[in-house]
Design brief:
The structure is a single chain. With 83 residues, this protein is mostly helical. The longest helix is centred in the C-terminal third of the chain and has 25 residues. It is globular. It starts with 9 loop residues before the first helix and ends with a helix.
């Protein structure tokens, strides 16, 4: 986890990989910590949009998010119906 709000640099990605990281997020970890402190159960689902680690543009990240939109919505809807 990195604090953001900027994307990781290639050097940060290399460092995190050396530590064993396979994915990096900016918000999931602190949100889960806060939720667990309040006694909530948590299911975390992430969509990785910045696979290049600081090499892609913000526009490319937004496009990756838009590309998955309908499928992600269907996934969440299915999970909520199952609950």
């Amino acid at each position: 986890m990195v604090s953001g709000p900027t994307y990781e640099t290639p050097a940060e990605v290399a460092f995190l990989r050396a530590l064993g990281a396979q994915a990096v997020g900016m918000s999931t970890v602190p949100e889960v910590i806060a939720a667990r402190q309040e006694g909530l159960r948590v299911l975390g689902i992430s969509h990785l949009t910045n696979l290049a680690g600081g090499v892609v543009s913000h526009q490319e990240v937004l496009q990756a998010g838009e590309k998955l939109g309908r499928r992600f919505t269907a996934l969440i809807t299915g999970i909520l119906k199952a609950l």
